């Protein structure tokens, strides 16, 4: 039996993740059945679950991939830039509808909550590091604890995600993000 190259395995995994992202975005977690995952990826259930333990594992892999991508932007440009990117390039964030599913599952599924916490730590750490650098540089308010700023920005992000996912991304959201950004800057 011939060995499959690492490049082939990586390409197949990427194919599965791309298809699953579209499927979860269109049908939600419950509606993204194995049959639909097979159709959208063009692969059999055996091929899909060769790379992922189960549907939860696939869903969490997507969440981790997205959190890693967002953490990279946060580290260099801040969490507000991630939100601006969501407004400017919504097609790059077609998974937003799945964030609502994540919120539901975080509330109702302790195993999922535990797994999600492990996977989303990278984004939280990037946000904390960015805020600490901004505070040290004198660009960020120093009268508000960092954990409160993180909670505030997370709340705004969740609200923006819900707004976009529900199809109500108004024209003034960029101005709202300007206000958010101004509200965390140091006042001289």
Automatic annotation (TrEMBL):
Keywords for this protein: DNA-binding, Repressor, Transcription, Transcription regulation
PANTHER family: HTH-TYPE TRANSCRIPTIONAL REGULATOR RUTR (PTHR30055), HTH-TYPE TRANSCRIPTIONAL REPRESSOR RV1474C (PTHR30055:SF229)
Record-annotated DNA-binding residue ranges: 33-52
InterPro entries the record matches: DNA-bd_HTH_TetR-type_CS, Homeodomain-like_sf, HTH-type_TetR-like_transc_reg, HTH_TetR, Tet_transcr_reg_TetR-rel_C_sf
Subunit description: Homodimer.
Gene3D superfamilies in UniProt: Tetracycline Repressor, domain 2
A GO term, aspect molecular function: DNA-binding transcription factor activity
Entry-linked SUPFAM superfamilies: Homeodomain-like, Tetracyclin repressor-like, C-terminal domain
Residues of the HTH tetR-type domain: 10-70
Name of this chain's protein: Putative TetR family transcriptional regulator
């Amino acid at each position: 039996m011939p060995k499959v190259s690492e490049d082939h395995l990586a390409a197949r995994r990427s194919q599965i993740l791309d298809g699953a992202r579209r499927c979860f975005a269109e049908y939600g977690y419950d509606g993204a059945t194995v049959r639909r995952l097979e159709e959208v990826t063009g692969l059999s259930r055996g091929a899909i679950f060769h790379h992922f333990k189960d549907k939860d594992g696939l869903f969490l892999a997507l969440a981790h991939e997205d959190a890693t991508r967002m953490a990279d932007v946060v580290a260099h440009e801040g969490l507000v830039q991630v939100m601006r990117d969501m407004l400017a390039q919504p097609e790059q964030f077609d998974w937003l509808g799945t964030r609502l599913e994540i919120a539901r599952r975080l509330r109702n599924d302790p195993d999922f909550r535990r797994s999600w916490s492990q996977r989303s730590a990278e984004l939280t750490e990037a946000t904390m590091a960015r805020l600490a650098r901004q505070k040290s540089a004198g660009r960020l308010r120093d009268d508000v604890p960092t954990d409160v700023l993180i909670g505030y920005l997370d709340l705004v992000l969740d609200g923006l995600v819900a707004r976009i996912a529900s199809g109500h991304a108004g024209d003034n959201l960029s101005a709202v993000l300007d206000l958010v950004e101004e509200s965390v800057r140091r006042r001289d």
